[in-house]
Design goal:
heterotrimer, B: alpha+beta, Dipeptide-binding Protein, domain 1, D-Maltodextrin-Binding Protein, domain 2, Dipeptide-binding Protein, domain 3, 6-stranded mixed β-sheet, 21 strands, about 30% helix, C: mainly alpha, MetI-like fold, 2 domains
Chain lengths: ~270, ~500, ~325
């Protein structure tokens, strides 16, 4: 029982740390994260370079801060886009039922069946890798999840007595959706969004790691990892920091999501 | 244990360790290769690993190139060229058989050439055969090739894997069951893992071939390559992918590290058909903005030679032009201003997925930024690069290594080639070089060509791609340099 | 039940057809000519045209797609452009790697998760529970490719116990096993973190039921109650998640094989896309899709079987 606030507090703290670093990097980083200085490559941690420098002499701490910005921005835009599209589809399916419902759910199945990673690779191959394409790929993958969550939650609302009464009184499907369904599904959608945010950060890192995400010199945790991987024998520490950052960010949003879910649905929390 | 005794024990242990391989007189060799072959037919696929593993080992060609770049007879015992440079008469070795037991004679040579020259031929370098008028087998051991015009590079080209001599009985299945005449025959191939060759006892030089069995291991990951060498799982890595790890191997007495030469010029290619690079002042500004040594230090950990034009430094006709446009940011800025290129102008740098390109890219980006240009990097895949950059000329700049020998002709390929460089004077000069049979005269013209291209600042010329090899110290006969893609193993043996 | 099943099976077929159509047309949209990729930058236009004709690339896409579907229905997935052998052979060669990796990772996942989950439930509310839950939060948040790198640093670079990547071939079973330890672990940790939580809550739920209280009151040993009575009754949700996770693991191998340079299907699909090898990519994506859709279908059917009340609501 005591864990509930712990999740929420710990998650919120991590999320605040990551977004704080991202926002701060807009105005200040210890060094210019893209300034090269090959002569000073692989410098150890020091008062000037808190976490040392990488293979091109860039300041690792500054790159991590700027990388937070990239991660948070990509995940945020992708989740908002994916949630909008998914919720609209889910609400439509629930409201209309029948064939439309069937069609939308099969579409969601298709979205699940298509390996997300391959979709991203192909998108990058058609249009060239970029930040925008990474966002689109991640958003696309989010759509079926949000569609299912929204539909399931909406379904419950549609079977409630007052909604049935409203139907009987001749209220239109759109009006009912706007007045009764949306307010009642906000909680599960927001919880899902928090969790998808974590998945989005993980996905951005994975895409950049595979060279499909943001392009140099824009710092990205995933690309830092990919570059560090070729230097494992020389500078293993370069592979540690970006991974820790990804982990902290993902854990933060996951814990926040769990905490919010517990708060929204105390029954569930008791079972856990 | 006292000091001297411990030293003696250590010396004894080292002596034993050193003596072990010698006592066994090893005849097997395991070679690491970063690239994996897609098929085993060099006459149908341009993948470099096919030539690297099979060229001159399984397949042979009429001529061969030696490690120092000379062209010598191979399957041809001797070659006579007519005074007009149009008729080549090849006298072939007799008694040669293919690995499947069928005999090799002049008809096989004719078959090979006819197949490569046919309208439906899918030979990756069909241009090699373009100057050929006719190929005739005048006797079982004589082939006469007539050319439409003289070609100074014809014999060199007849040493390329694209002209591997194949037999009509086996040509169709060479992609998976390679049949050649070489000193090694194909034993097995496990895709994604290894390719095994074994000695061909029927080869004319079999007595001099020391190795009984050669295993090529495909190891794409640089860290895995280093680990495999350190663990002695592979004996040699002729194209070692990690220049940053060489000091570690240099410090290890088990290994020999060589930085050899290749034919690969790494260039910052500029799209000469597109503004602002249509203006020579902008191209010169780029050359002034580049600091080659910094690029070599940053991307290659110092293991490469800078180039000032499009020609390999190990070649006898090489001219050092690296000082032609010295690194001078102020001059670069002035030239850009003169050409009307505003500071902050955005240019795209499309990088193919090769470490030399991606590693150089970020440094080039920073150097051009210092001269006031905003460079947007796009790391693209190879298929995308081929289509968009190479075929559609849809790019501003790219970084690419040109690994073919004698490729100064690229600048004479006109506006349809991805350089989009078109200069009638140069095209005429190249035509003269191409048809000049006399070495001294051709070398002089090659030097003119290098100066011409350098002065025109067609591209940013960066460095010559090195051939980094790491091998066990006891191995002798491995090629240090790579004048061609082939890695001949007939002369390789374990010393001791 | 029967109409539902028919509807689901029809949906299954439709999904696969849609996946194959999307892959086909996207691969056709990709900039990059397979003939140019195979023949390289020194090739002439007529040689490339000849190769395109040979590969059958000159027909209109719709016609080629129809031909592909016809072939696929008869079990013929065509010939790989780059390897020049039937796609089915290539997949057969590499399936062993990917399946072995996925099965090994799954076994490790189940072993880790059951042990940790049951332990956590048994020590509910105490330090052990708290530690398992915290560890699983960390496990869920670790990117598998970063965990791979960490494992490589520790076991291959520092300790030199295991190879950092690559595969010695099945002829060397000990070497093959060594090469699979790190990738299987990297795959398993994330999944085990999820499964451990599911196991814990399922076990907790069963532990609250009457028959367990009775058994405890009768003085049966705690360990015996847990493993003999509680766990079997908690298995249904666990098995469901395991099924879903197996699909995750199969697609997860795509990344892990590329991190460890293992010659499996995941690496093959990357090579196929890079080389514009349409028949190969087509067959592989379809295979991954079949894995995911089949598992989804089985899980849905399992739900129906567990809880017939759902019948009215599924679909």
């Amino acid at each position: 029982m005591k864990r509930r606030p712990v999740n929420l507090i710990f998650g919120a703290a991590l999320v605040a740390l990551v977004t704080g670093a991202a926002l701060l990097s807009l105005v200040w980083t210890p060094h210019d994260p893209v300034a090269l200085n090959v002569a000073n490559r692989f410098a150890p941690a020091s008062a000037t370079h808190w976490l040392g420098t990488d293979q091109l002499g860039r300041d690792v701490a500054s790159m991590l801060m700027a990388g937070a910005r990239t991660s948070v921005a990509v995940a945020f835009v992708a989740v908002v886009l994916g949630a909008l599209a998914g919720v609209v589809l889910g609400l439509t399916a629930a409201a209309l039922g029948g064939l439309v419902d069937d069609a939308i759910m099969r579409l969601a199945d298709f979205g699940f069946a298509f390996p997300a990673l391959l979709f991203a690779i192909m998108l990058a191959a058609v249009f060239g890798p970029s930040l925008t394409n990474a966002v689109i790929a991640i958003a696309f993958v989010n759509v079926p999840t949000f569609a299912r969550v929204a539909r399931a939650a909406a379904h419950q609302v549609w079977t409630r007595g007052y909604v049935l009464a409203a139907r009987a009184a001749g209220r239109g499907r759109l009006a009912i959706t706007l007045d009764h369904v949306i307010p009642n599904i906000a909680a599960p959608v927001i919880v899902q969004a928090t969790i998808e945010f974590a998945i989005g950060i993980l996905a951005e890192a994975a895409l950049s790691y595979l060279g499909l995400g943001v392009q140099p010199p824009v710092p990205s945790w995933g690309r830092m990892l990919a570059e560090a991987q070729t230097l494992l024998f020389l500078a293993p520490h370069l592979a540690i920091w970006p991974g820790l950052c990804i982990m902290a960010a993902v854990m933060g949003f996951n814990l926040l999501g769990d905490g919010l879910r517990d708060a929204a649905d105390p029954r569930l929390a008791r079972a856990r | 244990m006292t000091g001297p005794f411990r030293t003696a024990a250590l010396a004894l242990a080292l002596a034993c360790a050193a003596a072990l391989p010698a006592a066994a007189a090893r005849t097997t060799l395991s070679i690491g290769f970063q690239q994996e072959p897609t098929s085993l037919d060099p006459t149908a696929d341009a993948t470099a690993a096919i030539d690297g593993m099979l060229g001159q080992n399984v397949y042979e060609t009429l001529m061969a190139v030696t490690e120092d770049g000379r062209v010598v007879p191979n399957l041809a015992r001797e070659v006579a060229v007519s005074d007009d440079g149009l008729t080549y008469t090849f006298t072939l070795h007799t008694g040669v058989t293919f690995h499947d037991g069928t005999a090799f004679d002049a008809e096989d040579v004719k078959f090979t050439f006819d197949r490569a020259m046919a309208p439906d031929s899918t030979n990756p370098t069909k241009g090699i055969f373009a100057p050929i008028e006719t190929v005739e087998a005048t006797a079982p051991d004589t082939v006469v090739i007539r050319l439409k015009q003289p070609d100074g590079f014809f014999l060199f080209n007849l040493a390329m894997g694209d002209t591997s001599i194949v037999a009509p009985e086996s040509a169709a299945t060479n992609a998976t069951q390679p049949i050649g005449t070489g000193p090694f025959r194909f034993a097995s191939w496990t895709r994604g893992d290894r390719l095994v060759l074994e000695k061909n006892p029927a080869h004319r030089n079999a007595a001099e071939v020391a190795l009984e069995r050669v295993t090529f291991r495909f190891i794409a990951d640089p860290a895995a390559a280093a680990a495999a060498m350190l663990a002695e799982e592979v004996d040699a890595f002729p194209g070692f992918p990690a220049p940053e790890l060489l000091p570690q191997f240099e410090a290890d007495p088990r290994f020999r590290v060589v930085v050899g030469s290749t034919e690969g010029e790494v260039i910052l290619a500029l799209n000469n058909g597109k503004a602002p690079f249509t203006d020579i002042r902008v191209r010169r500004a780029i050359s002034h903005a580049l600091d080659r040594q910094a690029i070599i230090d940053g991307a290659m950990y110092g293991r490469a030679q800078p180039i000032g034009s499009f020609f390999p430094p190990h070649h006898a006709a090489y001219v050092d032009l690296t000082g032609h446009y010295p690194h001078d940011v102020a001059r670069a800025k002035a030239l850009l201003a003169e050409a009307g290129v505003a500071p902050g102008t955005e240019l795209t740098l499309r990088l193919p997925p090769f470490p030399y390109a991606t590693r150089s890219g970020e440094i080039v980006q920073a150097q051009l930024a210092a001269a006031g240009l905003t460079v947007k990097i796009e790391q693209v895949e190879w298929g995308f690069w081929l289509e968009e950059v190479f075929r559609n000329q849809n790019y501003d700049m790219t970084i690419i290594a040109h690994t073919s020998p004698n490729d100064l002709g690229n600048f004479a390929r006109g506006p349809s080639y991805f350089y989009a460089y078109d200069n009638a004077d140069y095209t005429a000069l190249w035509q003269a070089i191409r048809t000049e049979a006399d070495d001294a005269k051709r070398f002089a013209m090659l030097q003119d060509a290098q100066r011409f291209i350098a002065d025109e600042a067609v591209h940013g010329f960066l460095f010559q791609l090195p051939k980094l090899s790491v091998a066990r110290r006891e191995i002798v006969g491995l090629w240090d340099n790579a004048p061609v893609l082939e890695q001949p193993l007939a002369g390789v043996r374990w010393n001791g | 039940m029967a109409p539902y099943l028919i509807r689901r099976l029809a949906g299954f077929a439709a999904t696969l057809l849609a996946v194959s159509a999307v892959v086909f047309f996207v691969m056709n949209l990709l900039p990059g000519d397979p003939a140019l990729v195979i023949l390289g930058i020194d090739s002439t236009e007529d040689a490339r045209a000849a190769l395109r004709a040979q590969l059958g690339l000159d027909d209109p896409p719709l016609l080629r797609y129809a031909a592909w579907v016809r072939g696929a229905l008869g079990g013929d997935f065509g010939q790989s452009y780059m390897f020049k052998v039937p796609v089915a052979d290539l997949i057969r060669e590499r399936l062993a790697m990917t399946l072995t990796l996925a099965v090994a990772a799954m076994a490790l996942t189940v072993a880790l998760a059951l042990a940790a989950g049951v332990y956590a439930a048994a020590s509910h509310g105490r330090a052990g529970d708290w530690a398992v839950m915290a560890a699983s939060q960390v496990g869920i948040a670790i990117p598998a490719f970063w965990l791979s790198i960490l494992l490589v640093i520790l076991f291959a670079v520092v300790l030199r116990w295991l190879p950092p990547g690559g595969f010695p071939g099945w002829d060397d079973p000990a070497g093959a096993a060594r090469a699979l330890i790190l990738p299987a672990t990297a795959l398993a940790v994330v999944q085990a973190a999820v499964l451990a939580r599911v196991t814990r809550s399922a076990v907790l739920e069963v532990m609250g039921q009457d028959f367990v209280r009775t058994a405890t009151a009768q003085g049966l040993p705690r360990r015996r109650i847990l493993w003999r009575h509680v766990l079997p009754n908690a298995l249904v949700p666990i098995v469901t998640i395991v099924g879903l996770q197996f699909a995750n693991l199969v697609t997860g191998t795509i990344v892990i094989e590329n991190v460890f340079y293992l010659p499996g299907l995941g690496r093959l699909v990357f090579q196929g896309i890079a080389n514009r090898d349409l028949p190969l990519v087509q067959a592989l994506v379809l295979l991954f899709a079949v894995a995911v859709v089949t598992v989804n279908l089985i899980v849905d059917l399992a739900y129906l079987w567990i809880d017939p009340r759902l019948k009215g609501r599924v679909g």
